[in-house]
Write a structure and sequence with these properties.
two-stranded antiparallel sheet; 6 helices; alpha/beta; Spore Coat Polysaccharide Biosynthesis Protein SpsA, Chain A; seven-stranded mixed sheet; 229 residues; globular
């Protein structure tokens, strides 16, 4: 299994007062931080090496890894540094030091998917792979549609044909980040490979739960009431 990078450095502006003093992925749901549920799921589903990309209120992540332990995963914290890197820059900051492709996921999304299936679908000699879900506009704005067999990804200006959404996990290798700047959004990498028809895709069958807004945070709370840790 490839290493995992989890992007945990966002400012959580859409959550407002809920996340002023707490990083978004450390907000509690039923007495446990959201990040606990993510890592617990990774721990039970084949992950070994996990890199947490942290920035905003990073000291709280050091407290988290001291307090919570997992059986099978090795966790490392990587700080963004003094300058904002954006999601793309944060991945580049880590992946250029790793000699294999990496799974990349967001710290505010809980994904019910078999990582081994994504791993097996990925072809290392092509571009990055993005996992998509048939959203039809139900859970945030759809940003992927198909042009024949090719997935067309556009977060910046999604087509009105878009009926799939970026699920929040993909596989990348360091060569995917050639000619990128120091600070940029990861979607620019996906959009570039989409334009040259080298963006791989894998379709998820179960919806994700995310905590990016107060409304979705409340929905996630309901879901985790019955989550078996």
């Amino acid at each position: 299994m490839y290493p995992f990078i989890i992007l945990c450095g966002g400012l959580a502006t859409r959550l407002g007062e809920i996340a002023v003093e707490t990083p978004k992925c450390l907000l509690t749901l039923n007495e446990k931080p959201f990040l606990f549920y993510q890592l617990d799921y990774l721990d039970k589903n084949g992950a070994k090496d996990v890199f947490l990309s942290v920035g905003h209120l990073s000291d709280q992540f050091y407290d988290f890894v001291q307090h919570y332990t997992f059986s099978n995963i090795n966790i490392r914290l990587i700080e963004d540094g003094s300058e904002p890197l954006g999601t793309g820059g944060a991945v580049k900051n880590i992946i250029t030091e790793i000699n294999s492709p990496c799974f990349v996921m967001y710290g505010d999304s809980f994904l019910r998917i078999k990582f081994k299936d994504i791993y097996n679908a990925y072809k290392i000699n092509l571009g990055p792979l993005v996992v998509i879900y048939k959203n039809d506009g139900m859970y945030d704005v759809s940003n992927v549609h198909f042009d024949g067999e090719h997935a067309v990804y556009n977060k910046t200006n999604p087509s009105n044909l878009a009926n799939y959404i970026d699920y929040g996990i993909g596989i990348y290798k360091k060569s995917d980040f050639k000619n990128t700047s120091g600070s940029f959004d990861l979607s620019l990498v996906q959009e570039y490979f989409s334009k040259i028809k080298k963006l791989q895709h894998f379709e998820a069958s179960k919806r994700f739960y995310e905590i990016g807004t107060p409304e979705s945070y409340e929905k996630a709370k309901e879901f985790f009431i019955n989550y078996d840790t």
